[in-house]
Amino acid sequence: MIRLQIAIQLDYEVSATGSDFVFNIHAAQTARQHVLDEQLTLSQPVAYRVENEPSSGNRLLRFSAPPGQLQVNYRATLDVHHFIGSPELIPEVPVAKLPPEALVYIYPSRYCPSDRLHQLAMREFGSRWQGYSRVQSICDWVRERTTFASNTSTSQTSALDTLLDQTGVCRDFAHLMIALCRAINIPARFATGIDYGADPALGPTDFHAYVEVYLGDRWYMFDPSGTAIPMGFMRFGIGRDAADTAFATIFGSVKTHAPVIDIQAIAGADGRLRQPFHCGRALSTDG
Amino acid sequence: MIRLQIAIQLDYEVSATGSDFVFNIHAAQTARQHVLDEQLTLSQPVAYRVENEPSSGNRLLRFSAPPGQLQVNYRATLDVHHFIGSPELIPEVPVAKLPPEALVYIYPSRYCPSDRLHQLAMREFGSRWQGYSRVQSICDWVRERTTFASNTSTSQTSALDTLLDQTGVCRDFAHLMIALCRAINIPARFATGIDYGADPALGPTDFHAYVEVYLGDRWYMFDPSGTAIPMGFMRFGIGRDAADTAFATIFGSVKTHAPVIDIQAIAGADGRLRQPFHCGRALSTDG
Amino acid sequence: MIRLQIAIQLDYEVSATGSDFVFNIHAAQTARQHVLDEQLTLSQPVAYRVENEPSSGNRLLRFSAPPGQLQVNYRATLDVHHFIGSPELIPEVPVAKLPPEALVYIYPSRYCPSDRLHQLAMREFGSRWQGYSRVQSICDWVRERTTFASNTSTSQTSALDTLLDQTGVCRDFAHLMIALCRAINIPARFATGIDYGADPALGPTDFHAYVEVYLGDRWYMFDPSGTAIPMGFMRFGIGRDAADTAFATIFGSVKTHAPVIDIQAIAGADGRLRQPFHCGRALSTDG
Amino acid sequence: MIRLQIAIQLDYEVSATGSDFVFNIHAAQTARQHVLDEQLTLSQPVAYRVENEPSSGNRLLRFSAPPGQLQVNYRATLDVHHFIGSPELIPEVPVAKLPPEALVYIYPSRYCPSDRLHQLAMREFGSRWQGYSRVQSICDWVRERTTFASNTSTSQTSALDTLLDQTGVCRDFAHLMIALCRAINIPARFATGIDYGADPALGPTDFHAYVEVYLGDRWYMFDPSGTAIPMGFMRFGIGRDAADTAFATIFGSVKTHAPVIDIQAIAGADGRLRQPFHCGRALSTDG
């Protein structure tokens, strides 16, 4: 069990016509991620609601903001109870055995057009031993070929672009890994959190995107960008790709400032501090 | 209320290694679509299951088939209770008021990259009166610009291709209309059924794809291909686009024959035959 | 006749491994563009050569530069003798009558994939009166739909992107217009020069890209970006699109500064200053 | 020296409005390809002309045909005098040393968007020994990864599609090899001829597309499809890609039948028959 304390500060300047916001910055509440306490503060007295998006369980914060400065603060303390498995014992699941809720994650999506990558994925990974290690090899392949570089991709960059340009940020690494997994019928989905443990040389603590792959009987975490420590990940949302898993979707003209984000491992109820570390085992925060 | 009787016959030759199948050819069971009776027959004694895909409610037929001939027969009788609205009274829903389950249908998907179409959709439809009539004008625009022609599109054809090539089949019309709606933040989804009332000159009765758009307080049907009679539509599945709403997804090498499909309006319990007809009102089969 | 005096200053920092340069910043020498004098200065004592690219006649400046600061200065005085035609008298040329050297300009190229735009161009322009006015209507259509905005496009932006995004710089306007012309078999090519008369609000005097279309018996100039005064254009190069008509192609790692460019109309031999102006007639500088 | 005799028969049905044709089915006349005799027969008494396209030297046959049956017959006897080099002695040419007429062949074109493939080409080939052998390894890489299959590509298929789909016909192999060469600044162009020596299992004798790469001081032939015997190639045309090197470009509605093509090595003036064979040396038919 890892206890994490997070703090997010988002600053906007809403233009004259006002804007509607949909955030996914509330920590997910799952069987393995317990939110102990959380606090949301808006700098403007707007009526907001927090709703569950039914297909994903993502918690959406929604409101309409009038013109002017807007600051959103979210703080939470949460316990992450990892399931820890042995990579060599975790098999892939034949399509015929996949649970129905995993099936949608083998289909192509906006940024993960896996139908275009079938031949390439078969060539690179088709003959590998099937199981967790094959997915790890996809993760390694993406990481090895792709250079992390800010401002090299846009909101239109798909996995095909990242395959060719070989550069991107965490979301691009995730899209490419997801697309390759789906291309050989392995369910893979997009997950969002915070880049716990990231090298400060890459910039301040930030939101993060990583991958969950369905293996054995659950979803396991992979971090193809390799920039952070997966054991320190907490989850905001899951989805097919960045299209349905954005931290913030804004309708209207808004000036956005860089987010200020903090994440710390803190001592648990027993007073012990368990620090996330790079570990070679298979991690899942799925139910 | 319309009572429909449908019959589907699908023929395959499964190659030596066997194949896994996922079908979505069971009539959806919704508040407005009652399945009175249904019957599934497989020509081989395979164990199958019918599962609900949780995010869509689609009913998935799944099984593994051994090599050899395979025939799938599905027959059903169902009552469709339409909600019928007055187009001029049906408003669009501001993003801030959309129910959370409708939100995912404003995001781009594999075949409906609506993020690429924002400027074009704003130019064409941005200044129109908002409401059902604006969506109808999108439907008409797609139909007017696009020619129905078999074998002009492939499994990789997206709404952008259809916009440029101006030709396609029902699925392509649907993708383009969906992408244009989403581009201006109107939730739109892909629905599958049978092309009731289609002109025989276009070929034998076939599966059909159409569009559902969230307006007022429910999803309304639109048929941008204009090839069939929406009042005669029954629903198999709904989804973001053809990627997650396929009639059949086949894993393994299979030779496929053309489906043999029949749909008839039949007399209801009161002995009256209510025949679907082209009607200028707004139709919904959503709960 | 317009006499123009141009001055170009380009500054680079060549990295440790040195770089090869190919410039196309020498004024073209054609039957209608006479270079009276010109002067090239390089801040480093490198051996350079100026060569004619045979298929285009473009004059290419080529050299290898060692590491360090590099400044390239080019100055020229030239007379442009326009052919001035009456738009209403200039016909399109049937494909069968096109001279062989114009044929290549009806084929698709990297940034002008006209094969993808045939249907759209036919719908928009197919039934218009054929002649200069149809080409003008393509030019107007592009200008009306597209917003000039710096840094909205990249070196990968094609005419299809500009069609969708409806924003770009002069090169993007030119690509879209060229692609639409070729899509209906009208030869169109990319031309480069300086944006004489551009609104200073768009930034300092800069390189410019415009379009030449083969009509009647020669190539006529069009400026779809509408940012400058065509009568003040001088020509560096022509080509199929920006791929083969770059001002500078650099092989190796180089830091590039913004160019400093000046263009002035000056008095001719007779002491008279003829100032370029926006004129409604058809202009050609083609031989 | 190889003496070749070729015969081409093309059959069309021109629709009611007539059609304009541009063919490139005349054997090129170059310093190393001598046309000894040739004969063109058209089944209709149309006025035609044969013109040189100036930038390529391709010989274009052009005419307008009235409605009805049209048969085009072209027969020629030609001598191909190969330059034969030793692969290990043929270097790549630094960009700074490329002749100006080769420069355009390092730029991207419609079907060879080499700008998109720079990273991938650098990864695969960037660190190889530079010279003929590196180009041969690109040729081998394309051949090894791509499956020859008719009707898997269309007139819109680019090198990126072939890279992903890993299937195509000779033109697709050529586009991918060209794009990869240009991506690392090696000039490469598209060449057309007849598939001398092709395996009859792939179909009857047909037109062929192959690649010429500028190395040392000339253009060398490569056949990435590997379906034919390069020593038996004669040249119709050269160009940037299939966009400007089509065998036939037809303007108007025409029904096209499969071409009937024959090519034979025949005895030379000395009575000796020199048969083309697969040879491991570098072949050029360039001046």
From TrEMBL, chains A, B, C, D:
It comes from the Bacteria. InterPro entries: Bact_transglu_N_2, Papain-like_cys_pep_sf, Transglutaminase-like. Residues 162-226 form the Transglutaminase-like domain. This is Transglutaminase family protein.
